[in-house]
Amino acid sequence: MNVRRCAAVLAAVAVIGAATPAAADSSPSPEPSKALPSALYGDGDPQYDGVWRQSLALLAQDAAGVKPPKAAVDWLAGQQCADGSFAPYRADTSRDCDAKTPVDTNQTAAAVQALAALGGHDEVTGKAVGWLKSIQNKDGGWGYTAGGPSDANSTSVVIGALAAAGDKPAEVTKGGKSPYDALLKLALPCEGDGAGAFAFQPDKKGKLIANADATAAGVLGLLGKGLVVEPAAKGTQDTAELTCEKAGGPEQAAVNGAAYLRDELAEDGHLVSALGGSEQPDHGNTADAVVALAALGATEPAKKSLAWLEKNAAGWAEQTGPAAYAQLILAAHATGADPRAFGGVDLVKRLAATGPAAEQEKAEAAASDAESGSGSGFGVWWYVGVCLIAGIGIGFLISGRRKRQQP
Protein backbone atom coordinates (compact mmCIF):
# COMPACT_ATOMS: atom_id res chain seq x y z
CA MET A 1 0.00 0.00 0.00
CA ASN A 2 2.24 2.84 1.17
CA VAL A 3 5.11 0.75 -0.18
CA ARG A 4 3.48 0.49 -3.56
CA ARG A 5 3.35 4.24 -4.09
CA CYS A 6 6.93 4.88 -3.04
CA ALA A 7 8.32 2.04 -5.11
CA ALA A 8 6.50 3.49 -8.07
CA VAL A 9 7.86 6.99 -7.38
CA LEU A 10 11.40 5.65 -7.41
CA ALA A 11 10.73 3.61 -10.51
CA ALA A 12 9.49 6.74 -12.23
CA VAL A 13 12.73 8.52 -11.35
CA ALA A 14 15.15 5.66 -11.95
CA VAL A 15 13.53 3.84 -14.85
CA ILE A 16 11.05 6.15 -16.52
CA GLY A 17 13.33 9.14 -16.29
CA ALA A 18 15.08 8.23 -19.52
CA ALA A 19 11.78 8.18 -21.39
CA THR A 20 10.31 11.27 -19.71
CA PRO A 21 13.26 13.52 -18.89
CA ALA A 22 13.27 15.08 -15.44
CA ALA A 23 9.58 14.44 -14.94
CA ALA A 24 9.99 14.79 -11.20
CA ASP A 25 12.61 17.55 -11.24
CA SER A 26 11.55 19.94 -14.00
CA SER A 27 8.03 20.41 -12.68
CA PRO A 28 7.68 22.96 -9.91
CA SER A 29 7.32 21.33 -6.55
CA PRO A 30 3.84 21.64 -5.15
CA GLU A 31 4.19 24.36 -2.55
CA PRO A 32 2.21 23.40 0.52
CA SER A 33 0.71 26.42 2.18
CA LYS A 34 2.28 27.32 5.47
CA ALA A 35 -0.81 25.91 7.14
CA LEU A 36 -1.82 22.70 5.41
CA PRO A 37 -5.52 22.19 4.69
CA SER A 38 -7.40 21.26 7.83
CA ALA A 39 -9.22 18.55 5.85
CA LEU A 40 -5.97 16.70 5.07
CA TYR A 41 -4.92 13.68 7.11
CA GLY A 42 -1.43 13.98 8.55
CA ASP A 43 0.91 16.92 9.03
CA GLY A 44 3.73 15.65 6.84
CA ASP A 45 4.57 17.32 3.53
CA PRO A 46 1.89 16.07 1.11
CA GLN A 47 3.98 16.78 -2.00
CA TYR A 48 4.40 13.11 -2.84
CA ASP A 49 1.53 11.35 -1.09
CA GLY A 50 -1.29 13.71 -0.14
CA VAL A 51 -4.00 12.08 -2.24
CA TRP A 52 -2.69 8.58 -1.56
CA ARG A 53 -2.71 8.88 2.22
CA GLN A 54 -6.06 10.69 2.17
CA SER A 55 -7.54 7.88 0.09
CA LEU A 56 -6.19 5.18 2.39
CA ALA A 57 -7.45 7.04 5.45
CA LEU A 58 -10.95 7.32 4.00
CA LEU A 59 -10.99 3.68 2.89
CA ALA A 60 -9.85 2.51 6.32
CA GLN A 61 -12.48 4.58 8.12
CA ASP A 62 -15.19 3.32 5.80
CA ALA A 63 -14.05 -0.29 6.30
CA ALA A 64 -14.20 0.26 10.06
CA GLY A 65 -17.77 1.53 9.83
CA VAL A 66 -16.88 5.18 10.42
CA LYS A 67 -18.30 7.95 8.24
CA PRO A 68 -15.36 10.18 7.31
CA PRO A 69 -15.75 13.93 7.78
CA LYS A 70 -17.33 15.56 4.73
CA ALA A 71 -14.51 18.09 4.52
CA ALA A 72 -11.96 15.29 4.10
CA VAL A 73 -13.96 13.67 1.30
CA ASP A 74 -14.56 16.98 -0.46
CA TRP A 75 -10.85 17.82 -0.26
CA LEU A 76 -9.98 14.56 -2.00
CA ALA A 77 -12.55 15.00 -4.78
CA GLY A 78 -11.41 18.59 -5.23
CA GLN A 79 -7.85 17.56 -6.02
CA GLN A 80 -8.85 16.14 -9.42
CA CYS A 81 -7.53 17.71 -12.61
CA ALA A 82 -9.86 18.51 -15.50
CA ASP A 83 -8.73 15.44 -17.48
CA GLY A 84 -9.68 13.14 -14.59
CA SER A 85 -6.20 12.49 -13.20
CA PHE A 86 -4.91 13.23 -9.71
CA ALA A 87 -1.56 14.61 -8.58
CA PRO A 88 -0.27 13.90 -5.08
CA TYR A 89 -1.06 17.43 -3.92
CA ARG A 90 -2.38 20.63 -5.46
CA ALA A 91 -2.05 23.46 -2.99
CA ASP A 92 -4.06 25.78 -5.23
CA THR A 93 -6.88 23.95 -6.98
CA SER A 94 -8.11 27.17 -8.59
CA ARG A 95 -5.19 26.86 -11.00
CA ASP A 96 -5.67 24.43 -13.87
CA CYS A 97 -3.42 21.41 -14.13
CA ASP A 98 -0.90 21.59 -16.96
CA ALA A 99 1.88 19.48 -18.48
CA LYS A 100 4.05 20.12 -15.45
CA THR A 101 1.48 18.92 -12.92
CA PRO A 102 2.89 15.61 -11.60
CA VAL A 103 -0.19 13.43 -12.00
CA ASP A 104 0.17 9.66 -11.63
CA THR A 105 -1.74 6.42 -11.78
CA ASN A 106 -1.34 5.48 -8.12
CA GLN A 107 -2.90 8.64 -6.67
CA THR A 108 -5.66 8.50 -9.28
CA ALA A 109 -6.51 4.84 -8.72
CA ALA A 110 -6.47 5.18 -4.93
CA ALA A 111 -8.80 8.19 -5.12
CA VAL A 112 -11.19 6.21 -7.33
CA GLN A 113 -11.29 3.37 -4.82
CA ALA A 114 -11.96 5.70 -1.89
CA LEU A 115 -14.60 7.84 -3.59
CA ALA A 116 -16.35 4.81 -5.09
CA ALA A 117 -16.53 3.17 -1.67
CA LEU A 118 -18.05 6.28 -0.11
CA GLY A 119 -20.49 6.82 -2.97
CA GLY A 120 -21.91 9.96 -4.51
CA HIS A 121 -18.93 10.80 -6.70
CA ASP A 122 -19.71 9.01 -9.95
CA GLU A 123 -18.70 11.96 -12.11
CA VAL A 124 -15.30 12.22 -10.43
CA THR A 125 -14.59 8.50 -10.53
CA GLY A 126 -15.87 8.18 -14.09
CA LYS A 127 -13.47 10.86 -15.32
CA ALA A 128 -10.61 9.30 -13.39
CA VAL A 129 -11.23 5.84 -14.82
CA GLY A 130 -11.47 7.35 -18.28
CA TRP A 131 -8.03 8.90 -17.84
CA LEU A 132 -6.56 5.62 -16.57
CA LYS A 133 -7.95 3.75 -19.58
CA SER A 134 -6.55 6.37 -21.94
CA ILE A 135 -2.98 5.78 -20.76
CA GLN A 136 -3.03 1.98 -20.56
CA ASN A 137 0.18 0.47 -21.95
CA LYS A 138 0.26 -1.91 -24.91
CA ASP A 139 1.11 -4.81 -22.60
CA GLY A 140 -2.16 -4.19 -20.76
CA GLY A 141 -0.63 -2.68 -17.64
CA TRP A 142 0.25 0.69 -16.16
CA GLY A 143 3.36 2.39 -14.91
CA TYR A 144 3.50 5.03 -12.21
CA THR A 145 3.28 7.83 -14.79
CA ALA A 146 1.61 7.94 -18.19
CA GLY A 147 3.83 6.13 -20.69
CA GLY A 148 6.09 4.61 -18.04
CA PRO A 149 6.89 0.89 -18.12
CA SER A 150 4.25 -1.27 -16.49
CA ASP A 151 4.91 -2.42 -12.94
CA ALA A 152 3.08 -4.86 -10.69
CA ASN A 153 2.10 -2.31 -8.06
CA SER A 154 0.67 0.35 -10.34
CA THR A 155 -1.14 -2.21 -12.50
CA SER A 156 -2.71 -3.80 -9.44
CA VAL A 157 -3.93 -0.58 -7.86
CA VAL A 158 -5.50 0.40 -11.19
CA ILE A 159 -7.22 -3.00 -11.37
CA GLY A 160 -8.68 -2.21 -7.95
CA ALA A 161 -9.95 1.12 -9.25
CA LEU A 162 -11.53 -0.45 -12.31
CA ALA A 163 -13.31 -3.03 -10.17
CA ALA A 164 -14.46 -0.38 -7.70
CA ALA A 165 -15.94 1.64 -10.55
CA GLY A 166 -17.89 -1.37 -11.84
CA ASP A 167 -15.65 -2.32 -14.76
CA LYS A 168 -14.41 -5.83 -15.48
CA PRO A 169 -10.59 -5.52 -15.50
CA ALA A 170 -10.17 -8.48 -17.86
CA GLU A 171 -12.18 -6.58 -20.46
CA VAL A 172 -10.12 -3.39 -20.22
CA THR A 173 -7.58 -4.05 -22.94
CA LYS A 174 -5.01 -2.33 -25.10
CA GLY A 175 -3.73 -4.08 -28.19
CA GLY A 176 -5.60 -7.19 -27.09
CA LYS A 177 -3.78 -7.30 -23.74
CA SER A 178 -5.49 -6.99 -20.35
CA PRO A 179 -4.03 -5.94 -16.99
CA TYR A 180 -3.87 -9.62 -16.08
CA ASP A 181 -1.58 -10.27 -19.04
CA ALA A 182 0.77 -7.56 -17.77
CA LEU A 183 0.87 -9.08 -14.28
CA LEU A 184 1.43 -12.61 -15.54
CA LYS A 185 4.54 -11.38 -17.38
CA LEU A 186 5.95 -10.29 -14.00
CA ALA A 187 5.34 -13.63 -12.26
CA LEU A 188 8.38 -15.78 -11.49
CA PRO A 189 8.25 -19.51 -12.31
CA CYS A 190 7.97 -22.17 -9.62
CA GLU A 191 11.64 -23.10 -9.84
CA GLY A 192 14.63 -21.23 -8.51
CA ASP A 193 14.94 -18.22 -6.22
CA GLY A 194 11.71 -16.42 -5.49
CA ALA A 195 9.54 -19.22 -6.84
CA GLY A 196 5.99 -18.00 -7.39
CA ALA A 197 6.71 -14.39 -6.48
CA PHE A 198 6.22 -11.28 -8.59
CA ALA A 199 8.80 -8.75 -9.66
CA PHE A 200 8.08 -5.03 -9.49
CA GLN A 201 9.52 -4.65 -13.00
CA PRO A 202 12.16 -6.57 -14.94
CA ASP A 203 15.66 -5.33 -14.14
CA LYS A 204 17.90 -3.70 -16.77
CA LYS A 205 18.75 -7.12 -18.18
CA GLY A 206 15.14 -8.23 -18.27
CA LYS A 207 15.48 -10.52 -15.25
CA LEU A 208 12.62 -10.91 -12.81
CA ILE A 209 13.64 -10.53 -9.16
CA ALA A 210 11.20 -11.44 -6.39
CA ASN A 211 9.74 -8.48 -4.53
CA ALA A 212 7.48 -9.13 -1.56
CA ASP A 213 5.33 -6.04 -1.86
CA ALA A 214 4.99 -6.44 -5.62
CA THR A 215 3.90 -10.00 -4.86
CA ALA A 216 1.23 -8.84 -2.41
CA ALA A 217 0.03 -6.36 -5.03
CA GLY A 218 0.09 -8.99 -7.77
CA VAL A 219 -2.00 -11.39 -5.72
CA LEU A 220 -4.69 -8.77 -5.13
CA GLY A 221 -4.59 -7.61 -8.74
CA LEU A 222 -4.98 -11.08 -10.22
CA LEU A 223 -7.90 -11.69 -7.89
CA GLY A 224 -9.51 -8.46 -9.14
CA LYS A 225 -9.46 -6.94 -5.66
CA GLY A 226 -8.65 -3.48 -4.43
CA LEU A 227 -7.05 -2.08 -1.30
CA VAL A 228 -9.96 -3.20 0.89
CA VAL A 229 -10.49 -6.95 1.25
CA GLU A 230 -13.62 -8.14 3.00
CA PRO A 231 -13.07 -10.84 5.63
CA ALA A 232 -14.19 -14.34 4.80
CA ALA A 233 -16.64 -16.05 7.14
CA LYS A 234 -14.11 -18.86 7.37
CA GLY A 235 -10.95 -19.89 5.56
CA THR A 236 -11.75 -20.81 2.00
CA GLN A 237 -8.22 -21.91 1.17
CA ASP A 238 -6.34 -24.41 3.29
CA THR A 239 -2.73 -23.23 3.63
CA ALA A 240 -1.55 -26.69 2.58
CA GLU A 241 -3.15 -26.03 -0.80
CA LEU A 242 -1.02 -22.95 -1.42
CA THR A 243 1.29 -24.84 -3.71
CA CYS A 244 3.26 -23.23 -6.49
CA GLU A 245 2.35 -24.76 -9.82
CA LYS A 246 2.78 -23.69 -13.41
CA ALA A 247 0.38 -20.79 -13.79
CA GLY A 248 -2.28 -21.49 -16.34
CA GLY A 249 -4.08 -18.25 -15.55
CA PRO A 250 -4.54 -15.43 -13.05
CA GLU A 251 -5.96 -17.51 -10.21
CA GLN A 252 -3.07 -19.99 -10.10
CA ALA A 253 -0.54 -17.18 -10.35
CA ALA A 254 -2.23 -15.54 -7.36
CA VAL A 255 -1.99 -18.81 -5.41
CA ASN A 256 1.69 -19.04 -6.32
CA GLY A 257 2.29 -15.54 -5.05
CA ALA A 258 0.46 -16.26 -1.81
CA ALA A 259 2.55 -19.40 -1.32
CA TYR A 260 5.69 -17.29 -1.66
CA LEU A 261 4.42 -14.80 0.92
CA ARG A 262 3.43 -17.57 3.32
CA ASP A 263 6.92 -19.05 3.14
CA GLU A 264 8.61 -15.66 3.56
CA LEU A 265 6.54 -14.98 6.67
CA ALA A 266 6.82 -18.45 8.15
CA GLU A 267 9.91 -18.02 10.32
CA ASP A 268 9.33 -14.70 12.09
CA GLY A 269 5.83 -13.68 11.08
CA HIS A 270 7.09 -10.56 9.32
CA LEU A 271 8.97 -9.44 6.25
CA VAL A 272 12.27 -7.58 6.37
CA SER A 273 13.37 -4.36 4.75
CA ALA A 274 14.38 -4.49 1.11
CA LEU A 275 17.27 -2.12 1.81
CA GLY A 276 20.55 -3.80 0.98
CA GLY A 277 21.90 -5.68 3.98
CA SER A 278 19.11 -4.54 6.28
CA GLU A 279 17.34 -7.03 8.48
CA GLN A 280 14.93 -4.52 9.98
CA PRO A 281 11.28 -5.63 10.12
CA ASP A 282 9.12 -4.15 7.38
CA HIS A 283 5.79 -3.34 8.96
CA GLY A 284 4.16 -1.90 5.84
CA ASN A 285 5.05 -4.81 3.59
CA THR A 286 3.95 -7.24 6.28
CA ALA A 287 0.53 -5.55 6.47
CA ASP A 288 0.25 -5.77 2.68
CA ALA A 289 1.09 -9.47 2.81
CA VAL A 290 -1.59 -10.06 5.45
CA VAL A 291 -4.22 -8.51 3.17
CA ALA A 292 -3.06 -10.55 0.19
CA LEU A 293 -3.14 -13.83 2.12
CA ALA A 294 -6.55 -13.02 3.56
CA ALA A 295 -7.84 -12.34 0.05
CA LEU A 296 -7.18 -16.00 -0.77
CA GLY A 297 -8.62 -17.20 2.52
CA ALA A 298 -5.18 -18.22 3.84
CA THR A 299 -6.22 -17.20 7.33
CA GLU A 300 -3.64 -19.11 9.37
CA PRO A 301 -0.49 -17.35 8.09
CA ALA A 302 -2.38 -14.07 7.76
CA LYS A 303 -3.43 -14.10 11.42
CA LYS A 304 0.05 -15.14 12.56
CA SER A 305 1.53 -12.07 10.89
CA LEU A 306 -1.32 -9.87 12.11
CA ALA A 307 -0.48 -10.99 15.65
CA TRP A 308 3.12 -9.90 15.07
CA LEU A 309 1.88 -6.52 13.86
CA GLU A 310 -0.30 -6.15 16.95
CA LYS A 311 2.77 -6.55 19.14
CA ASN A 312 5.20 -4.49 17.10
CA ALA A 313 3.56 -1.98 14.77
CA ALA A 314 2.02 0.67 17.04
CA GLY A 315 5.23 2.69 17.33
CA TRP A 316 5.86 2.47 13.60
CA ALA A 317 2.36 3.73 12.82
CA GLU A 318 2.62 6.58 15.30
CA GLN A 319 5.87 7.72 13.72
CA THR A 320 4.75 7.23 10.12
CA GLY A 321 1.26 8.70 10.23
CA PRO A 322 -2.21 8.19 8.75
CA ALA A 323 -1.31 5.85 5.88
CA ALA A 324 0.34 3.45 8.32
CA TYR A 325 -2.68 3.46 10.61
CA ALA A 326 -4.83 2.84 7.54
CA GLN A 327 -2.69 -0.10 6.45
CA LEU A 328 -3.04 -1.73 9.84
CA ILE A 329 -6.79 -1.14 9.91
CA LEU A 330 -7.15 -2.72 6.47
CA ALA A 331 -5.02 -5.70 7.54
CA ALA A 332 -7.16 -6.18 10.63
CA HIS A 333 -10.34 -5.80 8.60
CA ALA A 334 -9.25 -8.37 6.03
CA THR A 335 -8.70 -10.98 8.73
CA GLY A 336 -11.85 -10.19 10.70
CA ALA A 337 -9.92 -8.68 13.62
CA ASP A 338 -11.02 -5.61 15.59
CA PRO A 339 -8.96 -2.54 14.65
CA ARG A 340 -10.25 -0.82 17.79
CA ALA A 341 -8.49 -3.37 19.97
CA PHE A 342 -5.26 -3.88 18.08
CA GLY A 343 -2.70 -4.96 20.65
CA GLY A 344 -4.30 -2.57 23.11
CA VAL A 345 -4.46 0.27 20.58
CA ASP A 346 -7.55 1.80 19.00
CA LEU A 347 -6.29 2.27 15.45
CA VAL A 348 -9.53 3.88 14.30
CA LYS A 349 -9.33 6.56 16.97
CA ARG A 350 -5.66 7.21 16.27
CA LEU A 351 -6.28 7.55 12.55
CA ALA A 352 -9.10 10.01 13.18
CA ALA A 353 -6.75 12.04 15.37
CA THR A 354 -4.48 12.69 12.37
CA GLY A 355 -7.27 14.33 10.38
CA PRO A 356 -10.18 16.71 10.71
CA ALA A 357 -12.37 16.26 13.75
CA ALA A 358 -15.59 14.42 13.04
CA GLU A 359 -18.71 16.54 13.03
CA GLN A 360 -19.99 14.89 16.18
CA GLU A 361 -16.76 15.62 18.03
CA LYS A 362 -16.93 19.25 16.95
CA ALA A 363 -20.50 19.50 18.16
CA GLU A 364 -19.63 17.90 21.49
CA ALA A 365 -16.68 20.24 21.94
CA ALA A 366 -18.83 23.26 21.08
CA ALA A 367 -21.48 22.11 23.54
CA SER A 368 -18.84 21.71 26.22
CA ASP A 369 -17.61 25.26 25.58
CA ALA A 370 -21.13 26.59 25.80
CA GLU A 371 -21.66 24.87 29.15
CA SER A 372 -18.42 26.31 30.51
CA GLY A 373 -19.47 29.77 29.37
CA SER A 374 -16.44 30.31 27.16
CA GLY A 375 -18.53 30.97 24.05
CA SER A 376 -15.39 31.54 22.05
CA GLY A 377 -15.10 28.21 20.29
CA PHE A 378 -11.52 27.96 21.53
CA GLY A 379 -12.11 24.44 22.81
CA VAL A 380 -13.08 23.16 19.37
CA TRP A 381 -10.02 24.54 17.63
CA TRP A 382 -7.71 23.51 20.46
CA TYR A 383 -9.01 19.96 20.02
CA VAL A 384 -8.48 20.07 16.25
CA GLY A 385 -4.96 21.38 16.78
CA VAL A 386 -4.13 18.59 19.19
CA CYS A 387 -5.47 16.05 16.72
CA LEU A 388 -3.27 17.43 13.96
CA ILE A 389 -0.18 17.55 16.15
CA ALA A 390 -0.77 13.93 17.10
CA GLY A 391 -0.38 12.97 13.46
CA ILE A 392 3.11 14.42 12.99
CA GLY A 393 5.46 11.74 11.67
CA ILE A 394 8.64 11.35 9.71
CA GLY A 395 6.89 11.56 6.38
CA PHE A 396 5.09 9.01 4.27
CA LEU A 397 7.48 8.95 1.32
CA ILE A 398 10.68 8.77 3.34
CA SER A 399 9.48 6.20 5.84
CA GLY A 400 7.43 4.02 3.55
CA ARG A 401 8.31 2.98 0.07
CA ARG A 402 11.69 4.44 -0.79
CA LYS A 403 13.43 1.25 0.27
CA ARG A 404 11.35 -1.09 -1.89
CA GLN A 405 12.54 -0.18 -5.38
CA GLN A 406 14.90 -3.12 -5.75
CA PRO A 407 14.05 -4.70 -9.14
UniProtKB/TrEMBL annotation:
UniProt keyword annotation of Transmembrane helix present: yes
Transmembrane segments: 380-398
Signal peptide residue numbers: 1-24
Region Disordered, annotated ranges: 21-40
Domain of life: Bacteria
The keyword Signal belongs to this UniProt entry's keyword annotation: yes
Biased composition (Low complexity): 21-35
Keyword set, alphabetical order: Membrane, Signal, Transmembrane, Transmembrane helix
Protein's name in the database: Terpene cyclase/mutase family protein
Organism of derivation: Streptomyces composti
